[in-house]
Amino acid sequence: MNINHYLKIAEELNVRQKQVSDTIELLDEGATVPFISRYRKEVTGSLDEVQVAAIRDRVQQLRDLDKRREAILKSIKDQEKLTPELEEKINGAETMSVLEDLYLPYKPKRRTKATIAREKGLEPLATKIFEQESIDLETEANAFVDEEKEVANVEDALQGARDIIAEWVNENAELRKKMRDLFINEGKFVSKVIPGKETEAIKYKDYFEWTEPIKTAPSHRVLAMRRGEKELFLMLDSCPEELDAVGLMENMVVTGNNTSSEQVKLAIMDCYKRLMKPSMETEVRLYTKKKADEDAIKVFGENLRQLLLGAPLGEKSVMAIDPGFRTGCKLACLGPQGQLLHYDAIYPNEPQRKTAESAALVKHLVDLHKVEAIAIGNGTASRETEQFFKSIGLPKEVLIVMVNESGASIYSASDVAREEFPDLDLTIRGAVSIGRRLMDPLAELVKIDPKSIGVGQYQHDVDQTALKSSLDDTVMSCVNGVGVEVNTASKQLLTYVSGLGPSLAQNIINYRNENGPFKSREDIKSVPRLGDKAYEQAAGFLRINNGQNPLDRSAVHPESYALVQKMASDIGTSVTDLMKSEELRSKVVLKNYVTETVGLPTLKDIMDELAKPGRDPRETFEIFSFQEGVNEMKDLKTGMKLPGIITNITNFGAFVDIGVHQDGLVHLSHLADRYISDPNEVVTVNQKVEVTVMEVDLNRKRIGLSMKSDPFAERGKGKTGGGNREKRREREKEPEGDLAAKLAMLKGKFGK
């Protein structure tokens, strides 16, 4: 690889060149991001996952750029038009857009107006005019009049010459660069409703007459306007003022003040309208879309990480409930490892309201299966079902927990669920998923397409390849960060372990089924097709809690077992005792074990693991309850203070479940008493918060919430007048009604 690329990446990421080159070497050898950041700290200089992934992605971009550069050089060389000067410019191009600008004059084209003019022999006239010297324009043009070539008169000749000049101007790389900067820095998005579609497009009302600088437009508004355009409700323009653009072109191209210069100006205007503007607008739209996608994907990835790393209840006996009214509540009893022990249905709610029979069955099953917690999905009839369970006199030690069921229905209809429970109804599968999600959110949520979990922002509008790559990175990071018990993990969970993938994950399951549980990490080498490289990448992240070697339940990599054994031997103890005793561990002098390949970072990681082998980095589970008596939107009153759980975070605020089957929105301006630009500064998914009800719209199912200590302060003595709100929106550059528009996303996003 080009050494300049190493330097460039190092400078961009503010790391050393050797860190970049060594990391790229590991990546090229097939090492994964989690493995490199966890087990190759000496090689990378302790780069974290984010830095390693950034190097991986940037080097791929630069390699793609080099590949395109080679193709362009070959194409121009084949045309015998490659000059040393042009080759130097192409080799110096640092972005794809600059590279394509340089290639544009040599790029094979379909038949253009300029092509036709050249075929008529008008290029010499165009050259003469473009020199912008004082000439007798009519006499010069008249010399090219030729009826056989379909140049009927002087104007035909001049028009053809202008067509050629327009193409020359359009292909000027320096001019295109400046024009691109003008579009991005001075351009504006101008959105208008398509006439006659005002009623049909009401959800895009904010954008019926909307103008906003391209440079500062936030990602959610860019994606909203593009969606409105795609759905044929909006017309969207993205250009600077025409006078500014044409003026820029004239300043760079026009050199005289005569009749030839006037022809050049006409060609420039034609170039801008017919060639430059459409081209630049396409580029700018792609640029802003890519930027908006990156923002949206980043939001989604961070939300997903927080959701996946939600606190697990752990290995408990759980009764899971998929609540409902008419069809009843589907019930599933699960063992501590998530195995299905029993399923049934109860009808505690309207219209059947078989309260006594339902209570008797529940109590019987709680006693029979020694149920320690009850997981209730937070969908339809959830609060009513919760109230039923709290009223039937269950033992106080039995936890009753509301569980976010977003995506459970997706799982229940999936191939994964059908394979696991081929004979069960979808609703029972959904109940099982709800229960397992309480026990271990990570292990259950990996079975669902992350896009269906409901923590994204415009996830169906962004680049799907980039989205999948980012979400896969996030899931892999979480799975490997927590570690996986190889004897109980599902295929889906194993798939995300470093170095494995679907095929090897299935081979592990098959081997486990045929040979019984793995007794040691060494046994994993016996899995068919799991070679040395895959074992190296995966072993440290796979746990065997009751294995023969105590280190097998830790994150210590097998390649370091001999080192740990030496540590224990040197102080006259065993590995088991070393793991149990802080006093013994304190006797180990780490610097004595530093080698060329093992440094203090790895040694410190090993000692941390010996102290808490296989520790779970997730938070400890805490019980949460919604406000008693607030079960539906009609129970809400302005000014109420309620407990809630953050379910989704976007660039414009956070959605909060307050237990009324409809999430409310805490707008960015109401997330804190101070000004914040990013919701992630103050909130996380699954965070328990207290909110104040600001607005309730029953007809449109919209709830406005606040996390401010005095949310009504701006309204003046509790009044809800719109004046201050208008000023606030203007100050925050939010379109009027934007809060309502964002709330409208809830129905489609969460299906509630």
UniProtKB/TrEMBL annotation:
This is RNA-binding transcriptional accessory protein. Residues 724-736 have a biased composition (Basic and acidic residues). Pfam families: HHH_3, HHH_9, S1, Tex_central_region, Tex_N, Tex_YqgF. The keyword Disulfide bond does not apply. Residues 639-708 form the S1 motif domain. Residues 707-738 are annotated as: Disordered. Residues 158-185 form a coiled coil. PANTHER family: 30S RIBOSOMAL PROTEIN S1, S1 RNA-BINDING DOMAIN-CONTAINING PROTEIN 1. Keywords: Coiled coil. It comes from the Bacteria.
